[in-house]
Amino acid sequence: MKMLYLDYAATTPLNNEVGEAYYHLLKEKFANADSIHGLGLEVESLMEKSRQLIASMLKVKSSELIFTSGASEANNLAIKGVAFQYQNRGKHLITTAIEHSSVYETFKQLESQFGFEVTYIPTLKDGSLDLQALEAALDDKTTLVSIMLVNNEVGMIHPIEQIKTLVAKYPFAHLHVDMVQALGKIPIALDGIDLASFSAHKIYGLKGSGLLYKKDKVQIQPQICGGQQEFGLRAGTSNAFTNIVLAKTIRLALTDLDRKLAHVKALNRKMTSYFQSLDHCVINSPIDASPYILNVSMLEYKPEVLTHALEQYGIYISTKSACSTKKQDMARTLKMMGVDEAVGTSALRISFSHLTTLEDIDYFINSFNEILSQIKKRGNYGV
């Protein structure tokens, strides 16, 4: 049976080149990067070379890149690091209610346990941010604004250029951007951004590998203490092999970006056109969303019934973010967009890759049609 994976927003398969490089390092370069003998110095040199290569690709300084265990840690380090470092200047923070859980829950913790005031910028019906509300919320006590570039549930792309302009009016305010669903998929630029988070396993790299960009002038309080690693901002024995192959991971992800993007746009158009032709179907993703994510609702069907039925055809999609799938309520993003409960609780998330083919979309469409026909014959519509 054919296997068709369409959950690339959750994770991606490991690129063979990355895997081979990692296994080679694991066997041949096992020394501690902090050891002062030759083997350790060689590993440290390879890791710093990786940092320099990544800096060149992202057009930043190597001293501005901190290796982490993933984007969740990078988000926590950025948000808590800035909040605690600058709390004497003010304890007002700004984010949105549609962020990834590693951002949203971090702000909730700062709010409930550490006495910070957090403003959650609302979204409009189409998922776009209320920029007037952001402008009104900013004040002289604001030290951090954290807004993702690409939403992981429905794919909307936030207007970071406009957000940068608003935040720049307040000299004590820092801008953090979660770029996990953007890197290697759409063009990105870090100018005018103070901190940004990245993940390797979303771009065909290793799980447990992430990166935080932090502008040199920005100071943060470390969240893990006890060592000098990562400029004293992240203590603990360096996961050197993972950090070394991150450069290759990012290089491969950025290669032929425009061609990959054009291909995925074609996939998305075909899939969107199909769902638009179905009765009782609502497209939740905005028209100008990232083409890598398509969120739809089949109003008369339980999403878990459809996802399990698709599995019988070897097709794998999700109902919402992998970090939230064990919760039974609707995705927070859809709730904040103000969609009806029937729409929000019947959502399906399909996420594409440059590895996906137009033939794969045909296979999905034919399989989905068969599933809908079978359910209609049973008469219970999966409800």
Characterize the structure shown.
With 383 residues, the chain is of the alpha/beta class. The chain folds into two domains: 4-12 and 256-378, Aspartate Aminotransferase, domain 1 (Alpha-Beta Complex), CATH 3.90.1150; 16-254, Aspartate Aminotransferase, domain 2. Helix content is 40%, strand content 14%. It has a seven-stranded mixed β-sheet with strand order 2-8-7-6-5-3-4, sandwiched between helices. It has a three-stranded antiparallel β-sheet with strand order 9-10-12, covered by helices on one side. A two-stranded parallel ribbon has the order 1-11. Helix 1 (16-28) packs antiparallel against helix 7, helix 2 (38-58) packs parallel to helix 7 (240-254) and helix 3 packs parallel to helix 4 (101-113). The radius of gyration is 22 Å and the shape is globular.
Order of helices and strands: EHHEHEHEHEHEEEHHEEHEHHEH
As a percent range, the share of strand residues is 5-15%
Number of domains: 2
- Average residue-wise pLDDT: 93
- Total number of helices: 12
Key terms:
383 residues; alpha/beta; Aspartate Aminotransferase, domain 1; Aspartate Aminotransferase, domain 2; 2 domains; seven-stranded mixed beta sheet; 12 helices
Topology (SSEs and partners):
Layout: E1 4-5, H1 16-28, H2 38-58, E2 65-68, H3 71-85, E3 92-96, H4 101-113, E4 117-121, H5 131-137, E5 142-146, H6 160-168, E6 174-178, E7 195-199, E8 210-214, H7 240-254, H8 257-276, E9 281-283, E10 293-298, H9 303-311, E11 315-316, H10 332-336, H11 341-344, E12 347-351, H12 358-378
Parallel strand pairs: 1-11, 3-4, 3-5, 5-6, 6-7
Antiparallel strand pairs: 2-8, 7-8, 9-10, 10-12
Helix pairs in contact: 1-7, 2-7, 3-4
